[in-house]
Write a structure and sequence with these properties.
six-stranded mixed beta sheet, Rossmann fold, four-stranded antiparallel beta sheet, 17 strands
């Protein structure tokens, strides 16, 4: 199906996977009932995990801060309900490793702590930024980068464009779509709040053209009043990736190894915008998020507002459980999500989806020899050479992988999607980035030691 779109700048590469969004796109957001226990993972952001402020036996209110930032790139954590801290424990996290967590047993009252609202239109940018930081906001598109840090670029970086990511190009996921459909004014208000902090006048929301009703809802909800331009974008994965979105909307190309701020842009997700509106205008910290629970093996796919600390098992129960023949459960979408080894893993600030796939939908990587067909080169949106890069990794030549810009890989999975040899390309590049990171640390330590001796 073809959809009209506004932009005429196309990023290089990309693919057209079956989006499978119809499973949940028409399902309105529902509020999950109060559970008998929440196990909130402490480290929910890129950067330093926050420092705990509570101990076993403490009573807490809904929205109360239970952990404070442990550095500049860190965010606080808040209780998803009122009750008692029943344990400080470890559970299996989304990455399959053990993660520190706070277990909270609700008292049934679901009583908020005292909330402090802020009139963002009369407040200073510094006051608004402090409010966002105190609410524990992170990028809710999956990156989990602290929002306040992203809104604090160095003074040497002049930001003149704010881009709001409403593309939601990842197959199956419809959480952002439902937010734009159901509460477009929250998204727009959050975008205007971010623009005030950054001091920018140009604000654009990019939405893929297969969501024309979302584009219309945003435009009709007062985008003009906030000076926001809503753009319909070409449908192509990964349209929602920061660098590709920036190029599609502005024609600016983020340099290799660079960041959006290097070309005067800041990108925020629509979910983060809605959370910012709640944080500033209502005083509510980030303690819940909309998550798509979907897949062919989910009895009743849908979109749920889930509190942090909700187990995957409970989220699936809300959707009627799973059908027979489940082969894989993924946190996130099929392209960039992570397969889960435990249903006890809980919802985090970055949990955009829970995807349940059947046996006929899961293919094992064969890791056959590369046949030099070039399909991965044609589809890589970062214009890398995935085939040769994967060979460097197999031969543990991480020095060569570094020279060929392996660190620029965004792990979108486009190369693996088209590879006829079914090579585990994304896994290769994940390893390469970890090894290169270790090499760089070793080089820096060596340089520091040499300098100290001098």
């Amino acid at each position: 199906m073809n959809f009209a779109h506004d932009n005429h700048i196309y990023f290089y590469g990309g693919i057209h996977p079956d989006d499978s969004k119809a499973l949940s796109a028409s399902e309105a957001i529902k509020d999950a009932p109060l559970l008998d226990k929440y196990t909130v993972i402490v480290g929910q952001n890129i950067g330093a995990p926050p420092k705990l402020l509570v101990k076993k036996g403490d009573t807490v209110k809904k929205g109360q801060k239970i952990a404070e930032p442990a550095g500049f790139v860190s965010v606080p954590l808040h209780s998803p309900t009122s009750g008692t801290v029943s344990a400080l424990t470890d559970i299996v996290g989304v990455f399959g490793t053990m993660a520190s967590a706070v277990e909270i047993t609700p008292d049934g009252k679901d009583e908020f702590c005292e909330l402090q609202k802020l009139d963002w239109e009369t407040a200073t940018p510094e006051q608004v930024l402090a409010k966002i930081a105190d609410a524990g906001l992170v990028g809710m598109g999956g990156a989990a980068f602290p929002t306040a840090v992203k809104l604090s670029p160095p003074k040497t970086k002049k930001i003149d464009v704010l881009i709001i990511n409403g593309a939601e190009c990842e197959p199956y996921l419809t959480a952002d779509y439902r937010l734009m459909i159901e509460t477009p004014e929250r998204v727009l208000r959050g975008a205007a709040i971010f623009a005030k902090v950054l001091g920018v006048k140009t604000i654009m929301v990019g939405v893929e053209a297969n969501k024309p009703d979302a584009v219309e809802k945003l435009r009709n909800a007062g985008a003009d009043k906030f000076g926001i331009e809503v753009k319909s974008l070409r449908v192509r994965y990964p349209q929602g990736a920061e660098k590709q979105l920036i190029y599609a909307l502005t024609g600016r190309k983020v340099p290799a190894g660079g960041l959006p701020m290097d070309v005067g842009c800041v990108v925020q997700n629509v979910g983060t915008c809605a959370a910012a509106a709640d944080a500033v205008c209502e005083g509510k910290p980030l303690i819940e998020r909309v998550t798509t629970v979907t897949g062919s093996k989910v009895a009743r796919p849908g979109n749920w507002r889930l509190r942090l600390g909700t187990p995957i098992s409970k989220a699936l129960e809300l959707c009627g459980g799973c059908k027979d023949g489940v082969a894989k459960i993924v946190s996130g979408g099929p392209m960039m999500g992570l397969a889960q080894i435990s249903l006890d893993t809980t919802i985090m600030k970055s949990s955009s989806g829970i995807l349940v796939l059947g046996r006929d939908e899961v293919a094992q990587y064969a890791n056959q020899p590369c046949i030099r067909c070039g399909k991965c080169v044609d589809t890589c949106p970062m214009e890398l050479m995935p085939g040769p890069l994967s060979l460097y990794v197999e031969n543990e030549r991480f020095d060569l992988a570094e020279k060929e810009h392996a660190m620029d890989c965004m792990e979108c999975g486009s190369c693996a999607f088209v590879c006829p040899s079914r090579r585990p390309l994304v896994q290769h590049f994940k390893r390469a980035k970890a090894e290169i990171g270790a090499m760089r640390k070793a080089r820096a330590a060596g340089a520091a030691a040499k300098g100290g001796k001098g």
